[in-house]
Design goal:
Helix Hairpins; 3-stranded mixed sheet; BirA Bifunctional Protein, domain 2; 8-stranded mixed sheet; 2 domains
């Protein structure tokens, strides 16, 4: 959430930032008019309350002296009516202003590229080499079904389209990848592991920015005020909601494995075949709470932490800096890691690493106490996938396939599959 004071004092900066996003957002001039009306109403209410306080003291004094206080009492009654009306008006305006602020996205970092879609994303670097297949290569669905690793037809029977059953060595591979990623992030990169709830309340989704704008993407419980998480970002970021952290403890870094649940509304017909875009998928999420002055440095470290998984698995990938038009609602700056998929002859996102600066922290009321004293300030929050397990499963099948239809198990995850070297029928 943007600070209303910041908007008021930097209106042109905010307008320029929102114009770069090319979206439809609440009218800022109207918002500031309502904010001014709220402030004036609040000030007038405080003045009337002070006047009422003096009159009430005068009433008490007159009664003590046995004098008539009816005039003053009538005035107090009238003041109560005016104060009630003003307070209700102020409260109504506060609700309207808060709802409008929730609908305004974060301002994009001034250094990220402009553009309306992914075609304007900026190439940063690449690592590794593409596999060289002498014959025709298979896609992950063909490989997975041939080797008995996944069953999409039975998953559709159980739950519907865009679900998967991993079976046998496929289930073991997925579980091994998850354990491998958690181990790397906790043992080598210094993250503390969390295992959070998969159901969260509305306050949590408001805190990270999924609500109110993206409610149609969520799976909501029918009889309870709870939602299935779209990503571990939500429960892990809200782990410190309404808290004041010690500056000395920052950065605080968490890694969490969870399943993720998304309706993917509006994406039918796009990437719906196989495991690329599922309603339920697994992910290891990385979340950081940082000092404001360190957050851009922490973002670069976060990207490197996610990259390490791909390097250990020797998978070719590239890093892209997202343009404004491809930027998430709550993010100020984002890097995507895109892994090479031979069957599609293209790169596909496998991790998105973002700096939200103080946007989420302001919504979730997460602050830090400065060593030098003074008023606590909002921390900066960051998160990124480290990585998406299903897409990593896809990348391994396609990049490590052999001419005979088998799949070589990358050395780094063989210990998680009891030393198994090849997936075969």
């Amino acid at each position: 959430m943007l600070d209303i004071k910041f908007i008021r004092e930097n209106i042109q900066v905010v307008k320029t930032g929102l114009e770069r996003r090319n979206g439809k957002f609440p009218d800022l001039d109207d918002l500031l008019r309502q904010e001014e009306e709220r402030r004036e109403g609040l000030q007038e209410s405080e003045q009337l309350k002070n006047k009422k306080k003096k009159l009430s003291a005068e009433v008490g004094k007159l009664k003590q002296q046995g004098q008539d206080a009816s005039k003053q009492m009538d005035e107090v009654k009238n003041l109560n009516v005016f104060i009630k009306e003003l307070d209700e008006k102020v409260e109504g305006l506060e609700t309207i202003i808060h709802e409008k602020l929730l609908g305004i996205p974060n301002l994009p970092d001034e250094n990220i590229p402009d553009g309306v879609d992914e075609s304007s994303n900026r190439f940063i670097r690449e690592w590794g080499t593409k596999p060289d297949f002498t014959g025709e290569s298979l896609n992950h669905v063909e490989l997975g079904e041939k080797l008995g690793l996944i069953d999409l037809k039975r998953a559709a029977k159980i739950s519907g389209a865009r679900f998967a059953v991993y079976r046998g060595a496929g289930a073991a591979l997925l579980r091994g990848l998850i354990n491998f990623m958690v181990d790397v992030q906790t043992q080598e990169n210094g993250y503390e592991e969390l295992y959070p709830p998969f159901l969260v309340n509305e306050e949590s989704l408001l805190g990270t920015g999924q609500l109110p704008k993206f409610g149609e993407e969520l799976f909501a419980m029918k009889n309870d005020p709870l939602f299935l998480i779209p990503t571990a970002e939500v429960p892990v970021t809200n782990f410190h909601r309404d808290e004041i952290l010690e500056e000395e403890s920052l950065p605080v870094c968490y890694a969490a494995y969870t399943p993720c649940f998304r309706r993917e509304a509006g994406s039918y017909g796009k990437d719906t075949q196989g495991l690329i875009r599922q309603h339920q998928f697994d992910k290891v999420e990385l979340v950081k709470f940082s000092k404001p002055e360190d957050s851009n440095t922490e973002l670069e470290k976060l990207v490197q932490n996610a990259e390490l998984i791909l390097k250990k698995l020797n998978l070719h990938y590239r890093v892209m800096e997202l343009c404004v038009g491809d930027l998430g609602f709550s993010a100020a700056k984002t890097y995507d890691l895109e892994v090479w998929l031979p069957s599609q002859n293209t790169y596909r996102e496998i991790s998105s690493c973002s700096n939200f600066i103080d946007y989420q922290a302001r919504r979730a009321k997460i602050r830090c106490k400065k060593k030098t004293g003074g008023k606590p300030e909002f921390v900066h929050t960051l998160n990124g996938s480290g990585l998406a397990a299903g897409r990593l499963f896809v990348a391994i099948l396609e990049n490590y396939q052999n001419a005979d239809g088998t799949v070589t198990v990358p050395e780094a995850i063989r210990p998680y599959l009891q030393g198994r070297e090849v997936l075969s029928t």
